[in-house]
Fold:
Amino acid sequence: MNAQVRKVSSRKMHDIVWILVGVFGLFAITFPLAMWRVSNMEKFQGSHVKSLVVEGEKAPESSQIKTK
Structure:
């Protein structure tokens, strides 16, 4: 088993790392933005996708699911 090892230049590795950091950065920015947009949509009013309640605090009436 004589596996050939390819050497990757440090410049190429830096490019790969910066691309991955950029993709992660875009995800980190757009995910909270999407969550904020969904939480403000009337379509999801009273749904479990709304903001979570901090333990010990009562949820606002508009975010609680009504049952008959």
Q: What stands out?
A: Residues 10-39 form the longest helix (30 residues). The radius of gyration is 23 Å. The mean pLDDT is 77. DSSP finds one helix and no strands in the chain.
